[in-house]
Amino acid sequence: MLFDTHAHLNDTQYNEDLEEVIERAENEGVTNMVIVGFDRPTIQRAMELVENYDFMYACVGWHPVDAIDMTDEDLTWIEELAAHPKVVALGEMGLDYHWDKSPKDIQQEVFRRQIRLAKKVKLPIVIHNREATADIVEILKEEGAEEVGGIMHCFSGSPEVAKECVKMNFYISLGGPVTFKNAKKPKEVAAEIPLEKLLIETDCPYLAPHPYRGKRNEPGYVKLVAEQIAEIKGLTLEEVAEATTQNAKKLFGIK
Ligand SMILES: [Zn+2]
């Protein structure tokens, strides 16, 4: 059993061959996945998918890159969707200082509003962080995000920051980069963070693991992430698969 905690099968890149992608994931042992929607079209599509597939759950929120586009109606819509039984988290939300489409102050405000909403609807949050670690940690602390906890998605920071996030009730999710030969920090994080606090993900269609780096990613490849963590920790694939699946189910409240 493998749980891909962050997949964008709602991306148009899967329009042609979604069924084959799902079949390959099942053949690799993927038993659950969370489909992440982060703007109007991708949230809509994520909800369609979770209505159609038992083993898919949804995470809905507003991406920091597009923070400037979020309206009050969008946030109300996300709040309504949060009541849906298959919506298990809010996000991805956070800060992205790599792209400058949305000014930092607007990103921070949209991030704070979503954390407050998550506390209101009592759902964990999924954090997107790009070049903004210090501000993310500060806002999570100021807003009391520990109350709902959540996931540091595709974590690329240091083991020290990972430990700080674990203290704030967050899981550390590792994706394709942990398999890259030159990825020093994700491998250190895999070694130092206890298995009880780790999750696995693909972030597909992005960040395909070795040996698919640069190609379109898909949920079946999450097995490569689990294998890499198992190798680093000196465990079996089954041990990592079992533990990360139980961690995800506990966080998302899935039986
Ligand atoms: Zn994502």
Distance between the termini: 14 Å
The biggest beta sheet is recorded as: 8 strands, parallel
**Total count of helical runs of at least 4 residues:** 9
Which residues sit in consecutive blocks of at least 5 with pLDDT less than 50?
none
Compact description:
The protein has 255 residues and is α/β, with parallel strands linked by helices.
Q: How would you characterize the overall build of this protein?
A:
- By secondary structure, the chain is α/β, with parallel strands linked by helices.
- The chain has nine helices and eight strands.
- Strands 1-2-3-4-5-6-7-8 form an eight-stranded parallel sheet.
- The longest helix is centred in the middle third of the chain and has 18 residues, at 104-121.
- The two termini are 14 Å apart.
- The model has no long low-confidence stretch (mean pLDDT 98).
- It binds zinc ion.
Give the SSE map.
Elements: E1 2-7, H1 18-27, E2 30-37, H2 40-52, E3 56-60, H3 72-81, E4 87-96, H4 104-121, E5 125-130, H5 133-142, E6 150-152, H6 159-167, E7 170-174, H7 184-192, E8 198-200, H8 222-233, H9 237-252
Parallel strand pairs: 1-2, 2-3, 3-4, 4-5, 5-6, 6-7, 7-8
Helix pairs in contact: 8-9
Residues 6, 8, 36, 92, 203 line the site of zinc ion.
Essential attributes:
255 residues, eight-stranded parallel β-sheet, 9 helices, 8 strands, 18% strand, binds zinc ion
